[in-house]
Design a protein that fits this description.
single chain; about 475 residues; alpha+beta; 2 domains; 8-stranded mixed beta sheet; 23 strands
């Protein structure tokens, strides 16, 4: 082997960003155990970062927009309105607009269904302003699109840890750090440069729940994602766009705390790991080739970065996107809306009794139970009628990398399996895209243990496996068509 090729892409691109921080005092409660409702301040600003891409040759396809928002979850109608706003401002087809969420739990739950709660009066105006901002942001990027090069890099970071821990004393699973659990540490990066070699931005794809900050935190926060972006942007320049991977069973080793300094420390860990990997990036449009020996004290083997061939240049200009709808069966024991409503009413009554008794611990527990049922009602009301949920997957092939965008929350097995099957192609997996329904989609092996993600899942055992196989077959057909 006398040549080392780093996967790359050539296209046209631009990046843009805006501040989307909600006002202090807005409804902020995200955790069942939280005792506050309103945000009391801001740890770091929330931001929207947008990447506009389009093929070198317009005849090869249309523009694709990927926007990453520092939010945990947004209701389907809000994501729909954001996409409509971008479409109206830019003319890009609705289906080509991908809105991904970083999933920071420090942002709070921005849902109009919470408008009657303390701080809820600020939700509607905030969301309306967010929708308008996203249209303007996309138009700004559209006006600055120019030739760009992508260099794809693989790194490692061990912030993420398995989060299904068996509490042997209480004989139950809890959602927390599991020192013995396996965690995917893959850090997938795209370094984007303009024709002059200047950095446009960095895409970071990593799977780890932004749950450093939990119920004791009352500040609006991007969690660890904010500090990560700051570290990268200060060193590399340009903007950093974060894409949340399949992190359904992954979270930070140190998490569920109230101290923002811990979130910043976690973010720096990912940021410095990214910078370490970026330091290995070759010049775009080159390969590392053995150049022969030079006689010194001994024969020294030399290597040089050399321009890639014309045929390889065509390969890195590949541009292909498609939509795949996968029917995922619902679980047979899915709770009904009536059943969940009765349970919620029960816990509301229990909360009232606890308040009358001044039992703060009991109040916290009852509030958590009410919150769980409220969210279950929200999930159930958004599920598509019928025996299965039609999950819309967006697939892209940009140069020598595969991009996969899915709604909901998937376990790490989705990305590890796809990356293994389609190596050596870099394969980006982004969850919580264009919808957070149907919620968690755990693998079949995790059912039956009363693990949190499985308990609240709407899809049946086997749904994750169906999704993996469906995506794999679609991508394999792409490869077959390309080589035939």
């Amino acid at each position: 082997m006398n040549v080392i090729r780093t996967p790359q892409a050539r296209c046209r691109a631009a990046m843009a960003r805006c501040d989307i921080t909600p006002p202090v005092g807005i409804y902020h409660r995200m955790w069942g155990a939280a005792m506050h409702d309103r945000a009391t301040g801001v740890h770091r600003p929330l931001r929207a970062t947008l990447l506009w891409t389009e093929p070198v040759d317009p005849s090869h396809g249309q523009a694709q927009i990927v926007a990453s928002l520092d939010h945990c979850i947004l209701d389907r109608q809000e994501l729909h309105r954001i996409r409509e706003s971008i479409q109206q401002q830019t003319g890009v087809p609705y289906e080509n607009i991908l809105i991904a969420l970083t999933h920071t739990h420090g942002a709070g739950w921005m849902s109009r269904t919470r408008s009657d709660l303390p701080g809820g009066e600020l939700l509607g105006p905030y969301l309306d302003a967010l929708i308008a901002k996203m249209g303007s942001l996309a138009r700004d990027a559209q006006q600055r699109v120019a030739p760009a090069s992508f260099v794809y890099l693989f790194g490692r970071c061990d912030l993420a840890a398995h989060r299904d821990y068996f509490d042997a004393e209480r004989k139950r699973f809890v959602c927390g750090f599991n020192p013995a659990g396996r965690a995917d540490d893959t850090l997938l990066i795209a370094k984007i440069s303009d024709a002059a070699g200047n950095t446009i931005g960095t895409v970071v794809n990593y799977a780890c729940h932004p749950t450093t900050l939990a119920w004791d935190n009352t500040l609006i926060s991007p969690d660890w994602v904010g500090a990560m972006q700051e570290v990268i942007e200060q060193d590399e320049g340009g903007l950093c766009l974060f894409l949340q991977g399949a992190s359904g069973d992954l979270g930070p080793r140190e998490g569920f705390v109230g101290d923002p300094a811990v979130a910043d420390r976690n973010g720096k860990q990912v940021g410095y790991a990214t910078l370490s990997t970026l330091a290995t990036a070759p010049p775009p449009g080159t390969e590392y080739r053995y150049a022969g020996p030079v006689i010194s004290g001994t024969a020294i083997g030399t290597w040089r970065h050399e321009p890639i061939s014309d045929a390889e240049r065509l390969a890195i200009e590949r541009w292909q996107w498609d939509t795949l709808v996968v029917e995922l069966p619902y679980r047979l024991d899915l709770p009904t809306i009536d059943q969940t409503t009765r349970e919620r009413d029960h816990w509301l009554a229990e909360e009232t009794l606890a308040r009358e008794s001044n039992d703060e611990t009991r109040v916290r527990d009852c509030r958590a139970q009410v919150e769980q049922r409220t969210r279950q009602l929200n999930r159930l009301s958004h599920l598509t009628p019928g025996p299965s949920y039609p999950l819309t997957v967006q697939l892209g092939w940009v140069g020598e990398a595969i991009w996969v965008f899915v709604p909901g929350e998937l376990y790490q097995v989705l990305q590890t399996t796809l990356r293994q099957r389609f190596a050596p192609h870099p394969l980006f997996v982004t969850t919580l895209t264009n919808d957070w329904q149907p919620g968690y989609i755990p693998p079949a092996c995790s059912f039956g243990y009363e693990i949190y993600q499985e308990v609240i899942a709407a899809t049946a055992p086997g749904a994750s496996e169906i999704l993996i196989e469906s995506i794999s077959r679609k991508l394999q057909r792409w490869i077959t068509d390309q080589t035939s």
